[in-house]
From TrEMBL:
Signal peptide: none annotated. CDD domains: HTH_LacI, PBP1_LacI_sugar_binding-like. Residues 8-62 form the HTH lacI-type domain. The keyword Cytoplasm does not apply. This is LacI family transcriptional regulator. The keyword Cell cycle does not apply. SUPFAM superfamilies: lambda repressor-like DNA-binding domains (SSF47413), Periplasmic binding protein-like I (SSF53822). Pfam families: LacI, Peripla_BP_3.
Length: 321
């Protein structure tokens, strides 16, 4: 039996979830790797019991929203998101505190435990994101972009389907997808593969970091290889286009290219790419509005999913041969 709501302890959570108190602590702090099934069970128990860390409630407003974004492989999306969020926050009387993913769960723990921010916004959240349990336990309002509780869902599957359909309509029968690791972008891949099966396309998936581009193209662009590439990493797009040019391959004359990127990255390419454009600005505005609404006690509403769209550009054309 648990304590009255508001004084629930880690032991209460552990007993209800059927795990040890140390396991609950590790889930919250992210100090050790916990299996996905156990993590989800602990998260659900935290939500059900209403567990909050001591000191997790904020007595007075700091006038600050913390924003956790990654600054490694998808810099364009992160910066567009943060810029839009900053403008909206300013209009609503808040400042933003940037927390990079490089600090992991420790960075957000410092923010919430010291009450440095009134609410936390997390970009690119996954189903088993290690940052989520700590946020739940902190008592700080949290808005996630991607998946999880209190999330603004981003549905990439229709964009994946549209991409495969577009390339199939141009006569491409073999397509290579240079894959990322982010969870919601893998849902793009699920939509892409579904449409590829329907259209009887050969769809290859290959991880590719910027430094691996020459090797990846060596392996893919064989005599019977794919005639179209889907580049799913902003950092990989420029070296792919440059390497194709170095090899004397015309885009889209010899190889078609589709990008998954921010509007800003698309705008800065020599050829405007056909692209699945991530609506980073819209997400930044909506995230801040939702966070502030929760602080003001507005009735919670189910956030409508954001659906990235395929925007046609100059890098896709009819398949060769």
């Amino acid at each position: 039996m648990t304590n009255p709501r508001g004084s629930v302890t880690i032991t209460d959570v552990a007993n209800a979830a059927g795990v040890s108190a140390s396991t609950v602590s590790y889930v919250i702090t992210g100090k050790r790797t916990i299996s996905a099934a156990t993590r989800r069970r602990v998260e659900e128990t935290i939500r059900t019991l209403g567990y909050r860390r001591r000191g997790g409630s904020v007595a007075s407003r700091a006038g600050v929203l913390a924003v956790a974004v990654g600054l490694d492989r998808h810099l364009g999306v992160a910066m567009e998101f943060f810029a839009a969020a900053a403008g909206t926050a300013r209009e609503l009387g808040f400042d933003l505190l940037l927390v990079t993913d490089d600090t992991g769960t420790a960075g957000l723990h410092r923010v919430t435990s010291a009450a440095l921010a009134d609410a936390v916004i997390v970009l690119d959240a996954g189903d088993d994101d290690p940052r989520v349990p700590g946020l739940l336990a902190s008592g700080s309002p949290a808005v996630l972009i991607g998946r999880g509780p209190s999330a603004i869902p981003v549905d990439f599957a229709p964009a994946g389907q549209a991409c495969a359909t577009h390339l199939a309509g141009l006569g491409h029968r073999a397509i290579a997808h240079l894959t990322p690791s982010a969870p919601h972008r893998l849902r793009y891949l699920a939509g892409f593969r579904e449409a590829a099966v329907h259209r009887r396309l050969e769809a290859l998936s290959r991880p590719c970091a910027p430094e691996d581009v020459p090797r990846c193209l060596d392996e893919l662009l064989t005599r019977d290889g794919p005639t179209a590439l889907v580049v799913h990493d902003e950092a990989v797009l420029p070296p792919v286009l440059a390497e194709l040019g170095r090899r004397g391959l015309r885009v889209p004359g010899d190889v078609s290219v589709v990008a998954v990127c921010s509007a800003g990255v698309a705008d800065h390419q020599r050829l405007r790419p056909t692209a699945v454009v991530v609506p980073a600005r819209e997400l930044g505005v909506r995230a801040v509005q939702l966070a502030v609404g929760r602080l003001e006690g507005l009735p919670p509403a189910e956030p409508e999913p954001v659906v990235p769209s395929l925007v046609l550009g100059e890098t896709t054309g009819p398949a060769v041969g």
